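Whether sequence alone determines local backbone shape is best considered at the level of individual chains. We regard such an encoding as a compact summary of how the chain folds. The sequence in question and its structure tokens are set out directly beneath this paragraph.
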Amino acid sequence: METHHVATVLGSPEGGMIVPGDDPVARSLALPLLDLNGFDGLLLLGGEGALLAFEDYEAVHLLVGKFNASGRPVGLVGHSTCAVFHARDGEGRLLCEGRRWTGPLAEEDRLSEHSRGVDFQPYYIEERSEDFPDSHFVQGPAFEAHVEIDGDLVTAQHPIATAQVAHEIATIIARKSGFQPVAA
């Protein structure tokens, strides 16, 4: 994001340390405490924990819907794409309805659970998308970078595509601001 001169703020449902493995790298701010009116875009990252944390977290659903309804780009990576089942656009439709989007494949999630010897996900995002007939879930190759862009909604199947999603969000913001987008 720095190549686009974009300021970033790390937020999480409750705030606190972001800990990949055993090495804390940053402190996040609690999402309910952030005034996001001055932000031009939103990027939610998600490993499997995001599915559990965001599923019933109405503040995230409202935040994603608010950004989308105001015409600001929303990027959802990996399991944070579960937000499309709850967030609503400016016309009251769920973000998964009538849009092309992607998220983790059931195959990827099953392999992840199998490797740990435990089933912990309440559902698989790919399979849940089938509950919404007007949803256009697009599969990419398993465990590879795959991104779908539908208007201001940018989704990634796997966290490996996070940089690409960030670039697309910055490109959308640049275009809306009248700047020439920077090539990746």
Remarks:
- Residues 162-176 form the longest helix (15 residues).
